[in-house]
Specification:
This protein has 218 residues and is α/β, with parallel strands linked by helices. 32% of the residues lie in helices and 25% in strands. The chain has nine helices and eleven strands. Strands 2-1-11-8-5-3-4 form a seven-stranded parallel sheet. It has a four-stranded mixed sheet with strand order 9-6-7-10, sandwiched between helices. The longest helix has 19 residues, at 151-169. The chain is globular, with a radius of gyration of 17 Å. The two termini are 27 Å apart.
Length: 218
């Protein structure tokens, strides 16, 4: 087992009765027994195992939205902080200040290797900062399309697939938004600023990774 598998809990989630590649999922080191999620409103019960009322922060994440987790959260008794709803820069800063005390931090990962390493690239660094330290629990929901063979492949995947797609979605004036591939630019609008590789966690059980048996996000 890899170092990452020692202190990070892994789960393989079967979603919405879709036929998936079990063998590919099992290639990821340390995967636990599957939890079935057949309907979007069941997602919160699977991912958020804890007190009925918990304090959540949502990192901007398409995978969280696509897997149905948000539907379950909105129907539950959760206090949710969503920075995207901030009306001013100061309000966004205040929301982030509360994030470090959140009970649960919801995010995805840009890539995950078959030996259990997480690769994330960030713009401001708030997302990866909370992954490293802060909130009590980190819930990572990711799809099979994020699985890669190693760290170099993971970084290449993010810079040449995820980042161009996000640049287009966010209407950034970046060369990758035009060409679809990374130009290793230093543009003022570039969000490939922080590259973080997570091999393991110093706090056993703090990070839980749910690998969903379908493609999610970019």
């Amino acid at each position: 087992m890899s170092a990452a598998g020692v202190c990070v809990s892994w789960y393989f989630v079967f979603q919405r009765n879709r036929r998936i590649d079990r063998d590919r999922g099992k290639q990821v080191v340390g995967l636990r027994a599957a939890d079935a999620v057949k309907r979007p409103d069941e997602a919160a019960a699977v991912f958020l195992i804890g007190a009925p009322e918990i304090f959540l922060f949502l990192a901007g994440c398409e995978s969280i939205k696509e897997c149905g987790l948000m539907d379950g959260i909105h129907k539950g008794d959760y206090e949710l902080l969503d920075r995207s709803l901030a009306r001013t820069p100061e309000e966004a800063r205040q929301i982030y200040a509360k994030t470090v005390l959140a009970d649960y931090y919801l995010m995805s990962t840009n890539a995950i290797t078959t030996d259990g390493t997480l690769i994330n690239i960030d713009g401001n660094g708030n997302r990866v900062a909370c992954l490293i330290q802060g909130p009590s629990h980190i819930i990572i929901v990711t799809g099979m399309n994020k699985v890669v063979t190693g760290v170099p492949e993971g970084v290449a995947r993010v810079r040449n697939m995820a980042s161009p797609a996000n640049a287009i979605r966010l209407e950034r004036r970046l060369p990758c938004a035009v060409s679809g591939t990374c130009h290793d630019c230093l543009s003022p609008e570039c969000f490939c600023n922080q590259i973080v590789v997570t091999r393991r966690s110093m706090h056993p059980g703090r990070i839980k990774v749910y690998l969903v048996g379908e493609e999610l996000g970019y």
